[in-house]
Each structure stands twice: as structure tokens, then as C-alpha cells.
Amino acid sequence: MSFDRSIKIAPSILSADFANFGAEIEAVEAQGADWIHVDVMDGHFVPNLTFGPPLCAAIRKHINTVMDVHLMISPVDPYIQAFADAGADVLTAHLEAGPHIHRTLQAIRGAGCKAGLALNPGTGVEDIDYLLNMVDLICVMTVNPGFGGQKFIHSQIDKVKKLRAMIGDRPIHIEIDGGITPETAPLMAAAGADVLVAGSAVFKGGSVQNPAPYGENIRAIKASVAS
Ligand code: DX5
Ligand code: ZN
User: Fold this and answer.
1) Of 44, 150, 178, 193, which is most buried by a Cβ count within 10 Å?
2) What's the 70 CA to ligand 2 centre distance in angstroms?
3) CATH topology for 8-226?
């Protein structure tokens, strides 16, 4: 996985057909997805349940690009090895998921994955100074985690600007997750983000049988950022 700051669209399979993940992933990649974002929820850290390591292992062979696994679970540490074994390229844990995020990030890199740190909308960037040298990605949540299709929280623009300044020349991706559309994407790209997760805005109007809308939706987000 090489590092650059070009804009990357990461469709979240939370908005795909759950009965057809393999074909959905292949369709959305063929339509221009840069990364595939996989939302793992435990019904405890967030009020929703999705799937775990076996599902990640099963879909891995359908993903040619980066498998970006977003862990909305607590505790995290007992499951890191299983998600690494399932083939995650990036493994992102929440700062809010437990008292020992430093240990968690060490364990993620120790398992051979890129380490991601996610911040809920209510979390500031003040406490992450001592984590910057141990992360490859910071995920700024622009909705409260748990569900797709929620409204973008504008106060996070300022957070991304602060984060971008803190990161400086370090090779750390800034990922935005939640409510990304052609209207909100340019705000985040201008603030310094490079990975844009989008679920509903990518999958709307399309299907495995009719994948062209996925491509149109991805290009609409990319065009909004370029203009
Ligand atoms: C929310 C998830 C997001 C979500 C984004 O908890 O982490 O990845 O699927 O969905 P949209 O783009 O619909 O807000
Ligand atoms: Zn996510």
C-alpha cells in the first residue's frame, strides 16, 4: 500500500446488498472505487450489529484494492489478530473504544496492518499528539457511528483543518466517514481529507444487475472535489 494524498473514494459496503457482498464489491470496484470500506459493529460500542472476521475473510478474495476495516467495537484488542488474519489492509479502532488506545495501535501494527484511529464527532484532537507517530490513518467521523444515511455534521470541518496542520509532512491519511455527498465532499477535501468514505451516496440507484449508477455516483463525488 503506497502513500499519497490524492482523493480516494471508499464505498462502504454497509449500503450494499448484504446477501451479495462478493458481487457488490466486484461491481463497485469495476465502477471506480479506490478502496473498500468495511463497517464492523458490535451492538455495544454502537447501537447496531453487522459482521465479524469470518465475513471479512470471505469477502477478501473479491477485493483487489485496499480493504479498509472500520472497527466500531469495544473491546478491540481480543479481535485484532482475527481481523488481520482475515486480510484487512487498514484496521481502524476508535479512540473512545477503551482506555488503552496506544496499546491497541501498537497491536494493530504488530499484526501487520496499517493502523487507523477513528474519532467520534464529540472527540477533540487535543489528546492525539502522542499517537501521531503510530498511525497511518485518522478517520474523522462526520456522523455518530452506527448507521448509514445520516446527516453530515458540519462542525467537523474545523477538526479536519486542525488535524491537517498537526499531521504536517507525516504520511497519515485523513479519512472522512459519514454523510459524504457531492455537496459535502468538497468541504472536506478543502480542509485536508484524502479518503472519502461514502455508503448511501455511492450505492443509491444501482445494483449488481445495474451497476452503472455506482460509477456515476463515484464520478459525481470526484468531480465535486476537483471543481
Ligand atoms: C457509520 C459508518 C459509515 C457509513 C457511511 O457508522 O461508519 O461508514 O456506512 O454511510 P453514509 O455514507 O451513508 O453516511
Ligand atoms: Zn465506517
Assistant:
1) 193
2) 5
3) TIM Barrel (3.20.20)
